[in-house]
Amino acid sequence: MTTKKKSGASKLAVWVIVGLLMFGMIGFGAAGLNGTQRNLGKVGDKIVSISSYSNSLQGELNQFEQQIGRKLTMQEAQSIGIDQQALSRVINTRALDQLASDLGISAGNERVLAQILEIPAFMGLNGEFDRASYAEVLQRNNLNEAGFETSLREDSSRELLQKAVLTGIKVSPAYSEAIVAFTSETRDFSWVKLTAENLKGQRAKPKEAELVQFHAENEAQFTTPAAKSISYIWLTPDMIVDEIEISDAALKAIYERRSDEFNQLPARLVERLVYASQEEAEVSFDSIQDGTTTFEDAVKMRGLELQDVDLGDVSELDLGLAGSAVFALTQPGLVGPVETDLGPAIFRVNALLSGNIQTFEMVKDKLREEAAFDAATEEIAAIGEDVDDLLASGATLEDVANETAMEFEKIDWYVGLSSKISDFDEFQSSAAQLSKKDFPELKNLNDNSIFALRLDAKIEPVLQPLTSVREAVIKAWTKKFERDQLQKLGELIARNVSLDKPISKFGFGEEIENGVTRDGFVDGTPPALVSKVFSTKLGVASLLDDADGLIILLPSAEYPANFKSEEVQALQEILAKRLNSALSQEIFQAFSTAVLRSLDVDINQATVRAVNSNLLGGG
User: Fold this and answer.
1) With the CA atoms of 220, 226, 229 and 230 taken in that order, what torsion angle do they form, in degrees rounded to the nearest 10?
2) N or C end of the chain, less CB within 10 A?
3) Buried b (16+ CB within 10 A) or exposed e, 395-415
4) Strands 310-314 vs 267-274: parallel, antiparallel or unpaired
5) Cβ atoms 85, 48 nearer than 8 A
């Protein structure tokens, strides 16, 4: 991707804006980590490293996969545009770095040093900066000191730019106040639900002429769907699993391989705080025990965070010399100081986890079922190869079923059919696309089953005669008749209801709802009820369809938002922060785009594809 320089006016505009906004601004901020390895290209004079793009891509990928709960394929990631998002992020970052350099913005050595000293990964056991740890961590991450420190300077410069652009940007309080006033408004209302039970005494038995007319006017309801007559063969693990025998010796071998799964030792959720000397550890332990300080404060005094001392769930063996002391606790608590390989330490036990020992006899049946299913899956894969060969040689589905374990069946399939093989999405998709010109082809179902299908004929939609669907017609006619009668009854009541003459005056047991907000919900009613209440004038009844009846509602009172209440004030504060944040993001994005347009961007797309191939698993 290469772009030409824009006119000097665009770049000049950015400089002018920055100059005005930065007047009087001082201070620096964030810390970051950008590797500088081989080059992906340049933005202005700034090199875009391969590592910065790969880190950005991995971050975008991880975030999206966490949201959907599964891994993405390369095709999915690229179709969503994750790679382009990552590349745009890196390019925008380097564009801002270029602007910062052009403006002469740079963090001093003291600021960079202060940031380095604050990073826990560079601290030794005493909680202070350790030069050897610093060098080791950088080397482990393929970084050098000069490159890492440059990235810290650039991060600080970018944050200063962002502060300069966004300082003083706030949404008018009237905006958030109007939204809160709208969302925090409440209403009182009454409602009643009418059903067929309220139509007692009204005729609901159709005459023959009415059925004939209804059938003719509603042909779509009584017409069979367009369908396909399909022959297919298939084989699932369940069809052959009972024929597979697994010896006890094989099951015992599986049990041994999975012994960690079936024999889980007792464990403890533990945090460990190591000290340089026994005396220091004892003083800290006593302070925690007598309540002078807390374990959390003790961790902070060591220059650490709780995550730095968290060991997770560990067994007695995992703890080495401290194992017996830690496991001697019969409930969560503190123990120590205890000598460890790293020095004297205080241990905090947060939970006791019981072990779970399952003997071979206890899990033998489960193992047999799993092993048999796995064996059935393998056998199906082998059978699939034979089926492929037979179909390729011109064998019919019937021939294949006769010569293999595949089962032959027929189905009249239509969209929405749910029955046996049609429950599988893969079959539904294949059946929908199937045509006469398609030859049977072996395909997979998502449970390791295989199938192949053939279109025998298309079945056109047919209007079923009244004699065949009489009961369905009567049922549909009755439902419509009752709905129409309920509508007439509801309209009659609604015309006569008012604040002075509530719904209960008509002999119905109305429900009363007080103080309902716009996002409220009333059990047993459709979600649209509350919205309907707020869109209806006070004292005027309104009707709302329900799945099995009709609802009459009457708004009776309206209360504006109480801006003196703590809840409403908290809501307005939260909303104002979100609005300010959203506006800031929009403005900074526009600013970043303007900066980028003023620079040459030269990215090697072949290198981008190579990184994508490495991270996303494709070409």
Assistant:
1) -120
2) C
3) bebeebbeebebeeeebebbe
4) antiparallel
5) no
Q: With pLDDT > 70 as the criterion, what percentage of the chain qualifies?
A: 93
Angle between helices 605-616 and 82-103 (to 10 degrees): 130
Tokens 């007080």 -> residue: 514
Is it the case that residue 9 has pLDDT exceeding 50?
Answer: no
Give the model's pLDDT for residue 22.
Answer: 38
Q: Which residues is 410 bridged to in the sheet? A: 231
Q: Are 235 and 444 in contact (CB under 8 A)?
A: no
Question: Strands 511-517 and 186-194, how do they pair?
Answer: antiparallel
Looking up tokens 């199938």 gives 451
**What is the rounded distance in angstroms from the CA atom of residue 194 to the CA atom of residue 196?**
7
pTM: 0.50
Average pLDDT in the 1-22 region? Answer: 40
Instruction: Determine the Cα–Cα distance for residues 98 and 410; give it in Å rounded to an integer.
Output: 68
* Angle (deg, nearest 10), helices 8-22 and 566-597: 140
Spatial neighbors of 64 by CB under 8 A, at least 6 apart, are 72, 77, 80, 82
CA angle 80, 84, 85 (to 5 degrees): 85
φ and ψ at 409, to 5 degrees?
-145, 165
Give rounded-to-5 percent helix, strand, coil for the chain: 55, 20, 30
Rounded (5°) CA angle 340-343-346: 75
Please give the order of strands across the beta sheet that includes 443-444: 407-413, 227-235, 450-459, 443-444
- 284-to-69, 124, 217, 336 alpha-carbon distances in Å: 43, 19, 87, 10
Model pLDDT for residues 106-132, shown as the tens digit of each residue? 777 788 788 888 888 888 777 788 888
Beta strand spans in 108-184 (E) = none
Q: Where are the alpha helices (DSSP H) in 290-350?
A: 295-301, 306-309, 323-327
- Residues with Cβ within 8 Å of 508's Cβ and at least 6 positions away in sequence, in order, are 192, 194
Strands 39-43 and 46-49: antiparallel
Main-chain dihedrals φ then ψ at residue 305, nearest 5 degrees = -110, 160
Closest CA to 453 of 408, 415, 423, 419: 408
Token pair, residue 49, equals 């490293």
Instruction: Report which of 167, 158, 154 is spatially closest to residue 595, judged by C-alpha positions.
Output: 158
DSSP run (H or E) holding 367: helix 360-392
Angle at 362 between CA 360 and CA 366, to 5 degrees: 90
* Tokens found for residue 511: 């429900």
Which tokens go with 325? 């002391």
The region of weakest confidence among 89-93, 198-202, 595-599 is: 198-202
Q: Give the end-to-end CA distance of the chain in Å, rounded to a whole number.
A: 19
Amino acid at 112: V
Q: Is 201 left (phi over 0), alpha (psi -120 to 50) or beta?
A: left
Q: How far apart are CA 262 and CA 330, in angstroms?
A: 24
